[in-house]
Amino acid sequence: MSAENNEPNRADLGKDPARVSGMFDQVAARYDLTNVAMTVGNDALWRAATTRAVAPRPGERILDLAAGTAASSASLARSGAEVVAADFSPGMLAEGRRRHGALRNLRFVEADATDLPFEDDSFDAVTMSYGLRNVNDPKKALRELLRVTKPGGRLVVNEFSTPPSPLFRGFYRFYNGTVLPRVARVFGSNGEAYDYLNESIRDWPDQATLAGWIREAGWQDVAWRNLSFGIVALHRAVKPGL
């Protein structure tokens, strides 16, 4: 579905890939602006923390899955690493090319997280920000990420999570349910898409559960760090083999 279609496309917790992809096509043009507004600027801090966790080095090959408009991919590419920005939304990738296509060490690939078009042991590091939650089979996606990572390679997943403080968690849920939809309708191009965002965050497992999924997929040395009181969490792991 093109980002130019006028009919709003709203995904649901069934996470049909075509519907989710079409929804992101529609929000691509104003996606980054809406994120800045909804996170009160924290998205830049979270992106910087993710880049530091990946620790990209010149000459490495890095996969940024669910890259969206490639803001995170560009941040990684500025290290000198060869970065592949992959996403299943052609609208998002088109916006990413428009904004960051001049970076010579950044290329764009349309890809399904559960069936990646890359060979085994292709990447030194793989990362995924705010995308695992939108995959209809996240455990399979984690296995696919393991498959395409070199032995000893690194995984970093940045995803919305569960604030450990009950008081802050209550405030956060109020914000997501009441304030966020209004902000999204002011700044976004498809306000209904952000209703799904709130539902998917509420339905997503906590930090320890996600860590368990990562271990089950075959990763080792799994750890996480909360950002912004646990609104998001950075999960890190290593592929066995070295």
Automatic annotation (TrEMBL):
<dbReference type="GO" id="GO:0008168">
    <property type="term" value="F:methyltransferase activity"/>
</dbReference>
<keyword id="KW-0489">Methyltransferase</keyword>
<dbReference type="GO" id="GO:0032259">
    <property type="term" value="P:methylation"/>
</dbReference>
<dbReference type="Pfam" id="PF01209">
    <property type="entry name" value="Ubie_methyltran"/>
</dbReference>
<feature type="binding site">
    <location>
        <position position="69"/>
    </location>
    <ligand>
        <name>S-adenosyl-L-methionine</name>
    </ligand>
</feature>
<keyword id="KW-0808">Transferase</keyword>
<feature type="binding site">
    <location>
        <position position="129"/>
    </location>
    <ligand>
        <name>S-adenosyl-L-methionine</name>
    </ligand>
</feature>
<protein>
    <recommendedName>
        <fullName>Demethylmenaquinone methyltransferase</fullName>
        <ecNumber>2.1.1.163</ecNumber>
    </recommendedName>
</protein>
<keyword id="KW-0949">S-adenosyl-L-methionine</keyword>
<dbReference type="InterPro" id="IPR004033">
    <property type="entry name" value="UbiE/COQ5_MeTrFase"/>
</dbReference>
<comment type="function">
    <text>Methyltransferase required for the conversion of demethylmenaquinol (DMKH2) to menaquinol (MKH2).</text>
</comment>
<feature type="binding site">
    <location>
        <begin position="112"/>
        <end position="113"/>
    </location>
    <ligand>
        <name>S-adenosyl-L-methionine</name>
    </ligand>
</feature>
<feature type="binding site">
    <location>
        <position position="87"/>
    </location>
    <ligand>
        <name>S-adenosyl-L-methionine</name>
    </ligand>
</feature>
<comment type="pathway">
    <text>Quinol/quinone metabolism; menaquinone biosynthesis; menaquinol from 1,4-dihydroxy-2-naphthoate: step 2/2.</text>
</comment>
<comment type="similarity">
    <text>Belongs to the class I-like SAM-binding methyltransferase superfamily. MenG/UbiE family.</text>
</comment>
<dbReference type="InterPro" id="IPR029063">
    <property type="entry name" value="SAM-dependent_MTases_sf"/>
</dbReference>
<keyword id="KW-0474">Menaquinone biosynthesis</keyword>
